[in-house]
Amino acid sequence: MKALRLLEWKSEPVLVDVAEPRPGHGQVVVRIGGAGACHSDLHLMHDFAAGQLPWGPPFTLGHENAGWVHALGEGVTGLEPGQAVAVYGPWGCGTCPRCQAGADTYCENLAAAPVPGGGGGLGLDGGMAEFMLVPAARHLVPLPAGLDPVTAAPLTDAALTPYHAVRRAWPKLPPGSTAVVIGVGGLGHLAIQILKATTAARIVAVDTRADARALATDEGADLVLAPGEAGADVIRDFTGGRGADVVLDCVGNDATLALGAACARTLGELTIIGLGGGTLPVSFFGLPYELSVQTTYWGTRPELVEVLDLASRGLLRAMATAFPLSEAPEAYHRLAAGELVGRAVITP
Ligand code: FEH
Ligand code: ZN
Ligand code: ZN
């Protein structure tokens, strides 16, 4: 079969022939319906070098996957060939308390994980191929009725990541609160939907691109701004002078982090979701009092079940553009050029 593989750091991915996977004991082979192209993949291609991450190439890209059960390894129960499933992407050890809670993202026994801190498309072979080997059946989540793998794939990362960040912030998002989403791309447009579906917050969206701002408006943001308009004072005025209760920075560069800190409320939260590589000076008088500044990494398996439930009821729907596997390199080029609205989904 063909697979889009990252062969070495700082390189373009290439389509090559690889053997179809066979499931070992406890493993499952999934026939891929959709594999999302994540902005993080661009960082894997262009920014990381050997030794910066605990895993590395060569591997098949695609860490945002859904498809159908194709083959069950010995000992696998609870799944049937042909069943539509989402792939929970972070693959931990399965035995530590974090993995037992479905938070493989924060596995504390990385030495026993299939790959330390990674998963399919992140050090092991991912979904940009016809078939994908999943090392444990627990990583598969049956799709609820009404969802198909092509539309469900982006939910496993582009929705799950902001959902985890919003869910953690629910106590700070009662009626009267304000959430700011910086960057209305693959994750940001779903962050707006998740805020609308699960909180009472007013939503401010910021993006450099007119088409992304139009999408934010369509998704129900209450105030949509271009960076030039989005001074902290404009956002603070919108909140009646209090500031934003929660800021989700889906870009994560110096300018967006500075904007997020400047428009945030005391006792607020600034969550860095984007891998833009920005930094934020932290000092006693440099930030609003008791502002929590945190990163976030993906989400938990139970949260993926909740995301799929929201989507099955029409409360979440990823804006997606499908590309055949042969055009996956082009999809990444268009992603890098900022030419895509929403998420690119590869359909092998
Ligand atoms: C991928 C690689 C490294 C850090 C974060 C990510 C996210 O895209 C996973 O959702
Ligand atoms: Zn990702
Ligand atoms: Zn673990």
UniProtKB/TrEMBL annotation:
<protein>
    <recommendedName>
        <fullName>alcohol dehydrogenase</fullName>
        <ecNumber>1.1.1.1</ecNumber>
    </recommendedName>
</protein>
<keyword id="KW-0560">Oxidoreductase</keyword>
<dbReference type="InterPro" id="IPR036291">
    <property type="entry name" value="NAD(P)-bd_dom_sf"/>
</dbReference>
<dbReference type="InterPro" id="IPR013154">
    <property type="entry name" value="ADH-like_N"/>
</dbReference>
<dbReference type="InterPro" id="IPR011032">
    <property type="entry name" value="GroES-like_sf"/>
</dbReference>
<dbReference type="InterPro" id="IPR020843">
    <property type="entry name" value="ER"/>
</dbReference>
<comment type="similarity">
    <text>Belongs to the zinc-containing alcohol dehydrogenase family.</text>
</comment>
<dbReference type="InterPro" id="IPR002328">
    <property type="entry name" value="ADH_Zn_CS"/>
</dbReference>
<keyword id="KW-0479">Metal-binding</keyword>
<keyword id="KW-0862">Zinc</keyword>
<dbReference type="GO" id="GO:0008270">
    <property type="term" value="F:zinc ion binding"/>
</dbReference>
<dbReference type="Pfam" id="PF00107">
    <property type="entry name" value="ADH_zinc_N"/>
</dbReference>
<dbReference type="InterPro" id="IPR013149">
    <property type="entry name" value="ADH-like_C"/>
</dbReference>
<dbReference type="GO" id="GO:0004022">
    <property type="term" value="F:alcohol dehydrogenase (NAD+) activity"/>
</dbReference>
<dbReference type="Pfam" id="PF08240">
    <property type="entry name" value="ADH_N"/>
</dbReference>
<feature type="domain" description="Enoyl reductase (ER)">
    <location>
        <begin position="2"/>
        <end position="346"/>
    </location>
</feature>
